[in-house]
Amino acid sequence: MARMTMIEAVRSAMDVSMARDDNVVVFGEDVGYFGGVFRSTQGLQAKYGRTRCFDTPISESGIVGTAIGMAAYGLKPCVEIQFADYMYPAYDQLTQEAARIRYRSNGDFTCPIVVRMPTGGGIFGGQTHSQSPEALFTHVCGLKVIVPSNPYDAKGLLIAAIEDPDPVMFLEPKRLYNGPFDGHHERPVTPWSKHDLGEVPDGHYTIPIGKAEVRRTGSAVTVVAYGTMVHVALAAAEDAGIDAEVIDLRSLLPLDLDTIVKSVTKTGRCVVVHEATLTSGFGAEVVSLVQEHCFYHLEAPVVRVAGWDTPYPHAQEWDYFPGPGRVGRALAEVMEA
């Protein structure tokens, strides 16, 4: 089986989908000849031509608006917003148009678009290249939201998203593009070529949207995370020597509540980790659901570990970024409660 980085896995997913279905089109800023700022679309224009992989003007609302029109016509656009931080001009199109077409048309029309966007920090990008806006989409009925943590999942989930009849927000943690970053920024990054989840089939496969994965089994405490924070949580549990069960959500909307409830019912404790700002982050929704469904099994209050309630600080990135130390302290806190 081939070993791929997450960039290569995402590219492979688009390649496989474009080969299988002529209605799949890829477009966005610099995605054609240049191959994208992270090279995620490199080679697709040369292989499929300029009518199926093409560059757009610098207009996020135009990119998404065009994708919606194409989808209503019968195409399957997979578009790229160059950084998740740039999606705000397109928010109206996404939330008021794409998310509502099925409802407004009583099912006569769907909107099979995928909006890919590199998300999160850890690359010294500062406040306009490091944001994690996933909670802005999980609040919107009609959207699906995916955040993969590894190349194998990225390819399978992206193919599933492209084949889905409804709009999917596909957030790619750019700190994971080349390796499974565990939060120890002072250490060399292990490449995906040396990680089991870097093994990715060449052909077509899908991973069900809405199904979480238990990355580490344990009986003392449940850690719920997604994206880069999955690897941080695994490192924190290892560093702290705590028998933690780590759940990789993969899909935020729809959410695999059954896997979370089953784990917390077993462990009696829960820590939720994400790198987006704390207040109104997606972790708050997870905490609320755990409290509603697992209250009589809890042995301690549920604890969140997240980014600060500030713009992403370039000069203090590693203090803002939830690392193994912060997560480890949270694990110790719930174990001592």
UniProtKB/TrEMBL annotation:
Quote one Gene Ontology molecular function term: branched-chain 2-oxo acid dehydrogenase activity
Record keywords: Lipid metabolism included? no
Q: Which residues form the Transketolase-like pyrimidine-binding domain?
A: 4-179
Q: Which GO terms describe its biological process?
A: branched-chain amino acid catabolic process; response to nutrient
| Enzyme Commission code | 1.2.4.4
Print the keywords alphabetically.
Oxidoreductase, Plasmid
Checking SMART domains in the record gives: Transket_pyr
Answer whether the UniProt record assigns the keyword Lipid biosynthesis to this protein: no
Q: Which InterPro entries match?
A: THDP-binding, Transketo_C/PFOR_II, Transketolase-like_Pyr-bd, Transketolase_C
- Which top EC class is given? oxidoreductase
* Cofactor(s) this protein cannot do without: thiamine diphosphate
- PANTHER family in the cross-refs: 2-OXOISOVALERATE DEHYDROGENASE SUBUNIT BETA, MITOCHONDRIAL, 2-OXOISOVALERATE DEHYDROGENASE SUBUNIT BETA-RELATED
Protein name listed in UniProt: 3-methyl-2-oxobutanoate dehydrogenase (2-methylpropanoyl-transferring)
Gene field: bkdA2
